Amino acid sequence: MTGGWSRAGLVELAEILDAKGALIVAELGAALPFAAARMFVIRDVPEGEPRGIHAHRVCEQFLVCVRGSVKAMIDDGNRRTVVALDRPSLGLYMPALTWGTQYDYSEDAVLVVLASHPYDPKDYVHEYEEFLGLVG
User: Fold this and answer.
1) Which domains does the chain show, CATH number per domain?
2) 30: left (phi over 0), alpha (psi -120 to 50) or beta
3) Cβ atoms 85, 111 nearer than 8 A
4) What's the pTM value of the predicted model, to 2 decimals?
5) Which stretches of 44-109 are assigned E, i.e. beta strand?
6) Is the dihedral of CA 128, 129, 130, 132 positive or negative?
7) Cα(136)–Cα(132) distance, rounded to whole angstroms?
8) Are 45 and 51 in contact (CB under 8 A)?
9) Rounded Cα distance, 79 and 77, in Å
10) Which residues are catalytically annotated?
11) What is the C-alpha separation between 60 and 82, in angstroms, rounded?
12) Other C-beta atoms within 10 Å of 79: how many?
């Protein structure tokens, strides 16, 4: 990831391989720009169903697909990018006010999301036009 923590982007996590298997490490505050206040797991997503489709006013997120694969679309109001999360050593940082949608989940996909804040329904922006007004 380039440009510091102000922009959404992919982050390579440290992966240690030896005869016992693989260990993937993400140091909070170093590899991740925030201390996680919440974690949730998304799995068993029906074929063709998207997830996300919103932004957060203040909450930051870090997404890692620990099994299978998923595509993630991120949008900062000026630029839209699609990335593939297809290995547990690759994470996606999404700062606040990043529109995000996850889709094209493989049948075995398991997506882990770390969030900087506890759940707050008032933090969600569900309308794209409202999002554009906030980042405008």
Assistant:
1) 4-135 (2.60.120.10)
2) alpha
3) yes
4) 0.89
5) 51-56, 61-67, 70-75, 80-85, 90-94, 99-103
6) positive
7) 6
8) yes
9) 6
10) 54
11) 18
12) 9
